[in-house]
Amino acid sequence: MRRITDEQRAQFREQGYVVVPGVLTDAQLAAARRTVAAMLEEEPPTDVGFHFLWPRFNGGHELLDLYREVGLGELAGQLIRPDLSIEEPDFAQVATTIPPWPHRPGGPHVDGLTPLAADGVPGTFTMLAGLWLTDHEQLDRGNLYVWPGTHLGLGAYLAEHGADALTDLDAMNPGPYPKIDLGSPLQVSGPAGGVLFAHYLLGHNIGGHSGTADDDRRETIYYRLHANGHRGRWREVVTSPLLEFRS
Ligand SMILES: O=C(O)CCC(=O)C(=O)O
Ligand SMILES: [Fe+2]
Fold this sequence. Notes:
Layout: H1 6-15, E1 17-20, H2 26-42, E2 49-53, H3 62-70, H4 72-77, E3 93-98, E4 127-132, E5 145-146, H5 150-161, E6 186-187, E7 195-199, E8 204-205, E9 218-225, H6 234-239
Antiparallel strand pairs: 1-7, 2-3, 3-9, 4-7, 4-9, 5-6, 5-8
The site of 2-oxoglutaric acid has 7 residues, from loops.
């Protein structure tokens, strides 16, 4: 079982994200790539650019088996308070980017708002976990853009305006993300087999892929993770962004 270091926990708290390298073994990586290839055969991309699949687990799925084998819940659990645990997810996102797709995001977004659920409750969660099935060592290979520290800025904005301001899509247009001081974005990078953990409130967006048609597509498997009890305290969590996290 990999351990998250104090430095990695501090980076997550301050910057809103951390990359933990070497989480998948070569065998797990190869098996996950075969699973994704089979899923993409069923629903192939029709063009360059991003292509997402949203498999639901319904109690059993190869991507749920992968989550369990990798110990992703336990690993993410080392970022949150010891009295909390990570609930098993019931769906994943297979995120691929087919080159060549020159693209730079104009700004960040926050997940779970477009569309809003019928009850108007935003689809908040504790953190995003992204398993990198392809190399992210070079930039512009489909690497995610993040705006470091914006989890704290968005939390402060919501503390001032009230948690329900998260659903004010006019004020959050175009992201959805409010007009707070964003600083400069960066592309997250590292070798295949690593995991990116990102705070729910962290501003982020999909990046371009400047490879040629002969280059590998980018492949990431995202799981949206909730600490137990998250849905009952989402208003507190989004106005106090480190509430669920371990120091
Ligand atoms: O393409 C990615 O890596 C991220 C996509 C994303 O942010 C989303 O689907 O919410
Ligand atoms: Fe997103």
